[in-house]
Amino acid sequence: MKGDNFPAGDATHFITAGQGEGTVVYEGGSYDLNTARTFFDVEVNLAAGVNIITQLADYTINGSLTVNTGVFKINNDASTTILNLIVAKDVLIESAGSIIVGTGNTIGSHFIDSDGIAPDNSVINVNFHSIFHQFKISGNFINNGIVKLTNLTAPDYNSFATNGAVTLTMTGASNNNLTLNNTSWFYNLIIDKGSDRTYVLDLYSANTAHFVLFGPNSVGRDIPSGYTSSNPQVRKALFVKNGTLKLTGNILIPSLSEGSDVNGNGDYAVGQNARFWIAGSNVSVYTTASDVSQITGFPLADGVNAASTNQAMSVYGEYKITDGFFGTRNSAGFIFWAAADAQVKIDGGVSNVSQFRSAGGGSGVASYIQTAGQLIVRGNQTEAGEVSSAYPLFGFDDATGVFNMSGGEILLRDIAVTS
pLDDT (tens digit, 9 = 90+) per residue, 204-221? Predict the structure, then answer.
């Protein structure tokens, strides 16, 4: 088709899995998609890479979306309506293809107030990620072209974007890949695979410059309806809600949390149903940044909080590292919660933290298992780090905690505990 002109009539057979499984191909120049549609497979083969088709109504794709040539644009530069793009299988962006978002502002009057007072707490608490366009994929996502789900030119860690953005959710009870072979600028990224840690999303980036998160990460976690203290809503740009996020290839995440604006503990939380897995020799993840110079490639990044409070890694589920680097910079380090049966598994790589301790007590059991790799607990030595004298530099809050070390190294460096 060379326009939004799918014929009227009963297309049930054409759009249904196991029946017609038809393919809609968009061709030609630039035009708008004004009608809400449900299709099976959709391909974008426009006349040139600069041609744009603009989604202005909800799309449900029961199969896969392929952008071969041209630009698929979510929303225009004026509409304030939140759009849904739901893909049941795979998304493939080829080298001459792009997915971008228009600059229409969907957030209304909502904003993040660093003084702790939200204009509409129900929106901030429950719908932190939902005031933007929603792009949900249940299969694989391979980007060989350009994906920009934000119009920001640098990360903004303590404000909502007012010039259009998309929340991408990788969903479904299945193992899948998010493969980034070219520019992939994400605003919010949610991993929601199944209902526990079973299913894995393997996030691979061919270059550290390809994968960038631009959304806010300064708001504390919360437990609105549908969430619990051990499975909180993580109001950050990256949220592992259910399943396992496995980081491979070449990835740099310079900041997971920049504090605790609005309400709730601002530490970066890994819920009980989640696993955070660092699995590549060129993968580096930091809980926070202490200076804007650490946001590589973006000297104008906003919202970097040089203070240390509420910027630690807080694990209710599982932290795993088999290769690569994890660091907590000047934050309170690494906290794992016994009440949620938190697990720490170090099978390689380097984890460099200021303090490493369990917390929470309760009836659960916190586990530390190390077979290889290195854990450096440095306190405030070699670089700044927040250390609480109320806890050991390395230790368990409860005598029932499990410590099993069959290999690797634990290096303790602190010489004087300070708060």
Answer: 999 999 999 999 999 988
